[in-house]
Amino acid sequence: MQLTYPGVYIEEISSGVHSIIGVATSIAAFVGYTSSGPDHKAVELFNFADYQRNFGGLAADSELSYAVQQFFANGGTNAFVVRVPKDGSSAAQITIPDTADTETLLKFQALSNGKWAGNIAITIDYIGLTNADPDAFNLTVTNISTGVAEVFSNVTMKTTSANYVMAVVNDPDTGSAMVQVLPLVPGSLAQPARTGLISGSMSVAEQTAALTALQGAGAAGLTIKIDTDTAVAVTLYNATDPRPASLTEVYRMLSVKCARALQAGYPGAQVNVIPVQSSLTATHIDALSVVAQIPGKTDCTVSFGSPASGINVCTTLKLDTASLTSDNVAAYWMGGTSKVAPPYNITVTAASDGTALPTGTELIGDELLGTGIYALDKVDLFNILSLPDVTRAKPGAPSSPALNDSDINAVYAAAMDYCKKRRAFLLLDPPPDVVDVPSAINWRTHRLTVNDLNGAAYFPRVRIADPLNQNQLRSFAPCGVVAGVYATEDGNRGVWKAPAGIETVMSGVQKLTYNLSNDEQGVLNPIALNCLRSFPIYGSVIWGARTLVGADAQASEWKYVPVRRFALYLEESLYRGLQWAVFEPNADPLWAQIRMNVTSFMQNLFLQHAFQGLTPTQAYYVLCDSSTTTQANIDAGIVNIEVGFAPLKPAEFVVIQLQQMAGQVAV
């Protein structure tokens, strides 16, 4: 501040406060097969309805779909799902010709593999466009099973335009979530053929004459035919009925009466008749667009014919074959079949669901390609990783694992390495052939080779009603339920509280595949296999909180789940909260600011009873000074911060000592 005149000057001085905010602790990530949805792309969900919209809901062969449902049912609020398609699956494709049907102009491919793409219908129109861009069109992509529609208005075939169809549809942020445009090099620019039937062009005078003719004496009608089926007679109005007052009323009657006539043979049929321009150069609305929506015949064609008698609506409105501007399928349907001219050449490449559920290698994925678990690289933060497909059962053999032990261990090993890199926690499930205490001991001590501090294993599997099988009980991996309970405990008590005890009731769990006794748990607990128990009154609860390195023989300082997860929380929070310190002058003022901000963060946790100790000194310490950062460190551009804390450890064993008091006689 420059002082230039006598008086009072005010200067704002930075306090050096950079508040450290604790990160979320229970964002779950699920990787595995879903019936639909984008392949190898992490999609954020906030409830199970989000899952249904993005991935198609529950599927009998998708363990992940049930795990996500169980996560939200048990208190989870935020999750990411990565779809891994079935082994050997492929994506549907469809080609779209130009208006003259001289060449293939566009090629669409479903964004993910599988027959679910048979629900995708693509429509094209020119409504609302001008001749400013003769290659422009409107594109709509619809999932006919869910009703979700994506509209891309005024896109063009011009590769140099900002609204080039490939750039718009394939945009990773605002583009389609269902299809992508594959690169093609057409011989010349043109518009893709629009869908539906377009009547012949009518001048204003012809439209006036048509209304006059339709207001004449007698009944008015036509016939309508779907594909090559038998034509159906349609009566717009009888001889004694009132005459239409306008062409708009005629178009409305045509929609309603045609739909009613078709519904006898095609239940649910709808017909949409809309006034449109026959071309972008038309100076007025001079034609009709007719689109028939027939269940099971998404790519049908419609044609009209003359009535047996009365006013001929077909020729009056130029709906006869000889007068048409164009006659195309109602929609380009990825679930349909290839078509040959007339009307247009359309090639459909059907999708394949594949031969089997994802292999262990496919679940792991490729780090360079960002597939499998590595699709989570694009997720900023997740804390819990669940892989329910790893321990799925063979189809038709509920007690036999689909993957062998080698594959299971390979997936869990890769997942554990990834969790350590991302400061996340892995939930491990018992295979379906782990059905009793001896098999559980064998699995934990011999078959399972992953033994690391960022994970925990649970036994037994849970039995939950399956709504896809008349609510019959079905065995599931417990990871979805456990992740939901983690989220509930974190929200209610904090990440430092063990996710176990009578308050960790597992919602929806009706039975366990094995009911453990106290003595049996006494064998599993020392080998760090967390038990799920069923108690009267309380129901099914989590009754163990040890990490994979929590076996008594290992004597690890990271024995307990809450201690390890709390440490991960501290690491991630401090990592994010101290980014401001990078490139600051490495000297006493910086060290003092770091100490102040980290101490403030730790003190807030102390006030929430997150540590052992009655005083802050007993609970934690923060060091950042010349004792932690030497001159050699300063010369190397390093500042060292040492944070220690006294973690809360669960009261795993509550011992009550009773002693009889000898009777005393007063003297």
UniProtKB/TrEMBL annotation:
Similarity comment: Belongs to the myoviridae tail sheath protein family.
InterPro entries per UniProt: Tail_sheath_C (IPR020287), Tail_sheath_structural (IPR052042)
Source species taxonomy: Bacteria, Pseudomonadati, Pseudomonadota, Gammaproteobacteria, Lysobacterales
Highest rank taxon of the organism: Bacteria
Residue span(s) of domain Tail sheath protein C-terminal: 555-659
Protein known as: Phage tail sheath family protein
